[in-house]
Design a protein that fits this description.
7 strands; alpha/beta; 39% helix; 7-stranded mixed beta sheet; Spore Coat Polysaccharide Biosynthesis Protein SpsA, Chain A
């Protein structure tokens, strides 16, 4: 049976990169590419639309808020997706690797697949030291609290629509990725990781590019892991 695969891309001031991301997504694999313009002051919307994406707006600032808006759009479709892929708009991931990302779901081996930058090849400087440390801390905490085998909180991920409904995502900012993983563990949703390549993003990071963003993200991630423990 052919599976409907839809992609959600949260985007805040990513006019430099979002067109490249949309362009590199394997069109033969996906049905809809939904870019959620999260209050951009540049021409993110125009660039994404001209690259062929469906663009919707989310005025409430936050990574999770943008992802939730994308999901509410997919929920409004007459035919829901079977699989949703989340991808950042900064061109640090390789959208061509989507085939490998969804393979464990299509093969019936998992309902959640994380693209792990820790297992894959990272371009030098692609991840800041605080990102590497934050990932290590979060995955180590999940290992001890939940027996998890995650190596990364990578944003490039695929999940079944069924699992998303069960997980019932709530987080509106930095805790989005870890909430999905922790709830999947608690609900005994099958998961897998695949190694993915990772390159230096285009433009400046809204999180790791600032001290405040780094501290807030780290705090929220740890809090989320402990909250569901």
């Amino acid at each position: 049976m052919h599976k409907h695969i839809d992609v959600v891309i949260p985007a805040f001031n990513e006019s430099e990169a979002v067109g490249l991301v949309v362009r590199d997504i394997p069109k033969e694999l996906v049905r809809n590419i939904v870019v959620v313009d999260n209050n951009s002051s540049d021409n993110t919307r125009a660039v994404a639309e001209s690259a062929g994406a469906i663009v919707i707006a989310e005025g409430k600032q936050g990574y999770g808020a943008a992802c939730l808006k994308g999901l509410s759009y997919l929920a409004s479709l007459a035919e829901k997706p079977d699989i949703v892929v989340f991808l950042d708009a900064d061109y640090s991931d390789y959208p061509q690797e989507m085939f490998q990302l969804v393979a464990p779901i299509l093969d019936g081996e998992a309902e959640l697949v994380i693209g792990s930058r820790s297992l894959g090849n990272r371009e030098k400087g692609a991840m800041m030291p605080q990102q590497v440390f934050g990932n290590w801390l979060a995955t180590t905490m999940m290992k001890y609290l939940y027996g998890a085998k995650f190596t990364d909180l990578g944003p490039f991920r695929a999940i079944t629509w069924r699992a998303l409904q069960e997980i019932n995502m709530k987080d509106q900012d930095y805790g989005w990725t870890v909430e999905m993983q922790v709830k999947a563990l608690k609900l005994d949703i099958s998961y897998a990781e695949i190694p993915v390549k990772y390159r230096k993003r285009k433009g400046v990071s809204k999180i790791t590019g600032t001290i405040k963003g780094t501290v807030m993200a780290g705090y929220k991630i740890i809090l989320t892991i402990l909250r569901y423990a």
